[in-house]
Amino acid sequence: MLRRILDRHPGSSLGHILFYDSQGFLARVVFATLYRMRSWGVPHVPARGPVLLVANHQSNLDPPALGSCQLFRRHTDFIAKVGLFRSKLLGRYLEALNSVPIRPGEPDTAAIKESLRRLEMGRAVMVFAEGSRTTDGQTQPFKRGIAVLLKRARCPVVPVAIEGSFDAWPRGRALPKLFGQRLYCEFAPAIQAEDLLADGPDAALDRLARQIELMRMRLRQRLRSSTHGRWPRPSLADAPNPAIIPPEQWESMRSEKTPGRPRRMTLAEATILMRETLLHRRTGPPDSGTQPAS
Length: 294
Hints:
By secondary structure, the protein is an alpha/beta fold. It contains 11 helices and 7 strands.
């Protein structure tokens, strides 16, 4: 039992693990209560061993929301902007929640080395590859500095998408909306490093961006379906970022034919079928015009 708990975050003390679990449990309760958060594909994240999780970034709700999805399963280390560590109190709290500071817009060698060290310990490290929060809900092009981490990590990579957190806490708003919002998350199957990097780290980054943006669009459709079209409100996020998925490619994807549902029988057709069935039961099968053999 103790071994299983310690395996949630290799190299950490029992006290550190229990503190993270307590904060994760609190976050889970808050997100389930206020935002009806749902997640798909969590078992796709390997239970043990190094794994890099690459996600889109919609708001400050993303780290606690995505981290709580794996509650009591395994812990996640996050790469966070170095500006969040300027406050000593907040910085210590973020460090207790396994955060790694990095400078946005450039490959921070120290942060990459620290991330690689944690991966070598068998941990799960999550990066928000856009480098900063989206300004319109669409996934922004990924920062090329993440390609350096992909190339050097050489471990399984799990694409992750979150949708709804931008509408709940858009950039520029002081506090999040607490009511009438929903959050959906999805974890895709892990991609092995050899497969992902077959065409080079830049191509790997572009592949991840496309996949995560498509996952986000699928989550947005699920949100609309579950709320009968009431949520989320129409915005630029209803279409993928054209810098990631060109409009003509998106239209081609949308126009692809999918197997439809069987056509429902009309009332008139059902009435005729019922009459024929009743007549058949009363009179027997229709006469074929042949005589039985003597």
